[in-house]
Amino acid sequence: QKMISVHDFLTPLKKNGITFLTGVPCSFFKAAIDCTLDDPKFRYVMVPNEGAALAAASGAYLAGRKSLILIQNSGFGNLINPLTSLNMIYKIPVLIMMSGRAYGVPDEPQHKIMGQSMGNILDAIGIKHEDLPQEPAQYVKALERSLRYLKQKKLPFVFFVKKGTLESYKRKTKPVAQFPLKRIEAIQIISKALTPREYVLATTGMPSRELFAICDRKQNFYMQGSMGHAPAIALGLAFEKLDKKIVVLDGDGALLMHMGIMSSIGHYRPSNLYHLVLDNESYETTGNQNTTSSTTNFCQVALAAGYASAEEISHPEKLKIKLKTFFKSKGPAFLRIKINREPFPNIPRISSRHTSEQITSNFTRSLKTSS
Fold this sequence. Notes:
The protein is an alpha/beta fold and 371 residues long. It is built from 14 helices and 14 strands. The chain is elongated.
């Protein structure tokens, strides 16, 4: 398979005046994102979700700057609203590159539907798209052709990017959150504090996979997609299962993606909801790119939204002590756990043991039992 070097990928963008990049990271674009972060001629803007990326790029266009957004197709749904109600009707052209998870190749179940239907969706709303060539010269021609289309039609254009299109790139600097606690250690501590009465919704990515590896049980709902929606599922559950304790095992990137749900949780104040955020200030699963959580005080947000309590912990022993009483306290309770980015190797995928349907079946059956 042919590949494009990061230099060959970015140089034509720069040549054509595209220096404003934004998006939500995908590992397919790790090399491109890392290189733009090292290159002062580019501006890469971190945003919480794909719709915000398109809106930010649109703002850059209004200011006279050409832009590019890089997203994973699993977040394509977040893009649809501004795509159809902002860019298409206001004639704001933005170049979009979308990774092709499950696009003609096997992938995890959460990517299957979007991978098979994203072309049809774009066709249905009238957005032109094509596969990004994997040969440098053809890539340059396709890029220039797409830019002519943007200029003439004043509409967005989408490239589908297949896995392995870009060669790897090693960042010059690697910012790392310096905290003593590893995520897997935090999950081990949390798991020991759980009883059969606590029902856990684990967010997308490594929190779900590491919980599965450490403490697989029917009272766990492992979210392999729908990033950012674990707290909303928990809110619905908490209303209907007042005799159960509903626990959200969240991540900083996931919480930032749809942080508005904290206002709903604080407004309705379910006393049986417990919201834990494992915060390593990064999108570790997709390549260790920074989130913006380092400058966001989640605890203040939680208290301002109406949570009953909020606390931040970064040391293992303090976490153990806190969890002795945390699930006995009145909710909604919030706990931010600061962790480092040290990966734990060879974490199995949840699909190696459970289908998505089995996860639902196990969880709903366990909810019907008395505790």
